[in-house]
Design goal:
Layout lengths: L1 H10 L4 E4 L1 H9 L5 E2 L17 E5 L4 H6 L4 E3 L6 E2 L7 E6 L4 E5 L6 E4 L3 H4 L4 H13 L1
Parallel strand pairs: 1-8
Antiparallel strand pairs: 2-5, 3-4, 3-6, 6-7, 7-8
Length: 140
């Protein structure tokens, strides 16, 4: 169902904000996109799901850089899979310090952004994450 929905949304150029597993689906949906099946040490268990686990840095000129800023941003990624091969048409827009892809976008669409972390858990505490949802809402 998600695959079909994503196909329809992309075909109609409806704004997309894909989060965590959604980013993984977004990448695999695009031709050639693959996943690294297991990352050691990337499981984070904290009492507060908004607590940053590490930081990411955005690629200059990317939509994420415009929204979040170019400097390091604390994120709460808690995943054991990650983008391995980036799907055709996607641009890597954010990486963690160890080089793991944490954000991609499709620059030929109006708004098609995917992040590996959970901004919905951080929106109340971190203005950068709130701006991500504001940008998505503005694109609708």
């Amino acid at each position: 169902m998600e695959w079909l929905l994503l196909h329809q949304v992309i075909a109609a150029d409806i704004p997309v904000l894909a989060i965590c597993r959604g980013m993984q689906l977004f990448n695999v949906f695009h031709e050639g996109g693959t996943l690294l099946q297991h990352l050691d040490g990337h499981t984070v268990n904290t009492a507060d799901p908004s607590e940053p686990a590490h930081s990411v840095v955005q690629e200059p000129g990317s939509r994420l850089a415009l929204i979040l800023g170019a400097g390091p941003v604390g994120v709460n990624s808690r995943h054991h899979q990650a983008v391995q091969q980036v799907g055709r048409g996607l641009r890597v827009t954010s990486r963690s310090g160890d080089g793991i892809v944490e954000g991609v976008e499709r620059p030929d669409l109006h708004f098609a952004v995917a992040v590996q972390w959970h901004p919905e858990d951080q929106v109340a505490r971190f203005p950068a994450q709130h701006r991500l949802f504001e940008a998505f809402a503005a694109a609708l």
